[in-house]
Design brief:
The protein has 203 residues and is an alpha/beta fold. 58% of the residues lie in helices and 14% in strands. It has a five-stranded parallel beta sheet, sandwiched between helices.
Length: 203
């Protein structure tokens, strides 16, 4: 059995990542692939309970990081690894880069602590392809405010927080040029669909 493929979608809140994630899942299914569409934090019954806590309860930044990785451990064991072993495509709305960008860049948690957690929880697992949707914070916030009536604990953060998250994603893109593709998310959804089609056809 050939191992499946693993794609993660990343970006600051409001960049348009979930819109493109949904499109890519439909597109890949249309191409005849068996696709597991999933997300983080979440993706399992326990992970979705942890997500509800993470998005609503105030907590210490290290507690936040540990819960993100706890949900991820469950997700890898219950969903991601079995799907890849079956030969399925796993298309995940956020994965480990979000922990570096949000808990590391956004909240200021020591990058080395995150690397230790990532080594523990992921081992050698990495997405085959990571798409980072990049847009100026002002544009992403405009989209977010137009779309979201009740912002969660992350969405309520100030612009400076998202500037740090964005800068971390840009650093991750620069440091991982093979795995990561940076996408200009200010373009129209249709234009971005075409870019994704090309990337998926050639990766
Ligand atoms: N390329 C785009 N151009 C303009 N608006 C967009 C684009 N992509 C998504 N949107 C809109 O912006 C809002 C946030 O999109 P969403 O995909 O939920 O963002 P994210 O998952 O990155 O937080 C939604 O109302 C969505 O319809
Ligand atoms: C996976 C992950 C998400 N997050 C945050 C980013 C998002 O603000 C929030 C929820 O992610 P997401 O599902 O992308 O939210 P939405 O669909 O509302 O755009 O969790 C982290 O801070 N660290 C992580 O490791």
């Amino acid at each position: 059995m050939i191992r499946g493929r693993f794609i993660s979608f990343e970006g600051i809140d409001g960049a348009g990542k979930s819109t493109q994630h949904a499109w890519a899942v439909d597109y890949l299914r249309g191409q005849g692939h068996t696709v597991v569409a999933t997300r983080e934090p979440g993706g399992t019954p326990l992970g979705e309970k942890l997500r509800a806590l993470l998005l609503s309860e105030p907590m210490h930044l290290e507690t936040e990081a540990l819960l993100m990785f706890a949900a991820r451990r469950e997700h890898i064991a219950e969903v991601i690894e079995p799907a890849l072993a079956r030969g399925d495509w796993v298309v995940c709305d956020r994965f480990v880069d979000a922990s570096f960008a949000y808990q590391g860049g956004g909240r200021g948690l020591d990058w080395k602590k995150l690397e230790t957690l990532a080594q523990w929880v992921l081992g050698d697992l990495q997405p085959d392809l990571t798409l980072i949707f990049d847009a100026p914070v002002a544009i992403a916030q405009q989209r977010l405010h137009a779309a979201t009536a009740n912002p969660d604990r992350f969405e309520q953060e100030q612009a400076a927080f998202f500037e740090r998250v964005r800068a971390s994603y840009l650093k991750i893109a620069t440091e991982n040029p093979v795995r990561v593709r940076l996408i200009d998310a200010t373009q129209t959804p249709n234009h971005i669909n075409k870019i994704l089609e090309n990337i998926i056809a050639t990766f």
